[in-house]
Structures are given as C-alpha cells and as structure tokens.
C-alpha cells in the first residue's frame, strides 16, 4: 500500500509538490478565465480566506492532532526522530480531505467560483506549507526569511520540554495562542 505509506520514496514524496502545483495552476487558470470582472473582488476574498484558513489548519493539525492524538502522534514522532527522512502525509489522504472537507461543502453552500477560489487559497497554502517544511529540513538557507523559518522549526524539533512553534509556514498562530516558547 505505497499510496498510504508515511515514509515515501523520492518519487512519491515529490508527488505532493507536482500534484498540488498542477492543482493550484489549474484552479488559477480556471478562475482567471471564468471570473466576470464584477465578481473579481469576491473571488479574491475567497482565495485570501482560503490562504488564511490554511495557516490555521496547519497550526491546529500540527499542535492538536500530530502532537496530541494517537495514532497521529506516534506517526508524527517518526518525523521528529528522523527529520530528514521523506516522511509525510500520503498525497491520496491530503487530496481526499481537501475535496471532501473544503471543495464539496463550498460548492454545496455557494457556487463553483467560490468553491474553486476557496480551494485555490487553501491548496496554495498547503503547497506553500509543504515547500516551506521541506526547505526547513533539506535546503541551505540563503534568504533571511528561510533562515528565520529554519530556526523557528528547529526550536520545534529540539525543545526538550513541551513542544512549541507548531506553525511551519508562519509563526502567527503560535503568537496568537502563546505557543512560541517565549515566557
């Protein structure tokens, strides 16, 4: 069951980047070609709402599910034990969750443009998270923003007391919920 494995081959690991890159591109092209000018502001608001929501989902899942709920806590501990290993959420699981929990309710409660815009924002946020998380573990930091994210994420991985710094792509929610490790 390679599709459901937590530790990925290089090809399976890269699937997230490729699949979500294609999804973001297709949604962006669709919205660009389909959005009437009078609905442009509404579509942009839904994209931004999806992006903002993705940062909260990232924080919430990491803090309360991956660090608090079995069997996810045990699975996430594998990543903490071997941070450079290609361990992550199986693409089929993350894709299914986005379709079932984001796109489907959005289209049922709204319309196709809103559903695609919200899904674009959330999927774009997820892609940004996966790239940022990969970069914190595998890339040399040549930019101050990436250096800051690497230091932030290293604090998450190397604090012996209670876990801190759950946000990977941003520290915003750690600041809001005082989980940044500062007294």
Describe the structure.
This protein is mainly α. It has one domain. It has helices at residues 10-34, 40-65, 72-81, 91-109, 112-138, 144-158, 172-176. It is globular.
Total strands: the figure is 0
Helical residues, percent: 55-70%
In terms of per-residue confidence, which ranges show pLDDT below 50 for 5 or more consecutive residues?
Answer: none
Number of H/I helices: 7
Q: What is the domain tally?
A: 1
By secondary-structure content and strand pairing, the structural class works out as mainly alpha
Strand percentage: under 5%
Quaternary status of these chains?
Answer: single chain
Radius of gyration: 17 Å
What is the terminal separation in angstroms?
Answer: 44 Å
Structural key phrases:
mainly alpha; 7 helices
Give the structure's gist in a few sentences.
The chain is mainly α. The protein contains seven helices and no strands.
Set down the secondary structure blueprint.
Layout: H1 10-34, H2 40-65, H3 72-81, H4 91-109, H5 112-138, H6 144-158, H7 172-176
């Amino acid at each position: 069951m390679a599709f459901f494995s937590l530790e990925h081959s290089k090809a399976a690991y890269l699937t997230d980047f490729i699949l979500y890159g294609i999804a973001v591109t297709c949604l962006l092209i669709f919205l660009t070609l389909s959005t009437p000018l009078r609905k442009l502001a509404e579509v942009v608001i839904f994209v931004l709402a999806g992006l903002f929501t993705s940062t909260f989902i990232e924080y919430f899942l990491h803090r309360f599910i991956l660090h608090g709920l079995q069997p996810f806590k045990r699975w996430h501990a594998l990543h903490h034990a071997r941070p450079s290993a290609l361990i992550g959420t199986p693409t089929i699981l993350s894709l299914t969750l986005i379709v079932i929990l984001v796109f489907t309710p959005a289209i049922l409660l709204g319309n196709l443009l809103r559903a695609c815009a919200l899904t674009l924002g959330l999927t774009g946020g997820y892609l940004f998270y996966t790239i940022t998380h990969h970069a914190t573990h595998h890339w040399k930091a040549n930019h101050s923003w990436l250096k800051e994210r690497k230091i932030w994420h290293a604090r998450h991985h190397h604090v012996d007391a209670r876990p801190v710094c759950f946000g990977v792509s941003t520290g915003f929610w750690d600041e809001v919920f005082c989980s940044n490790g500062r007294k």
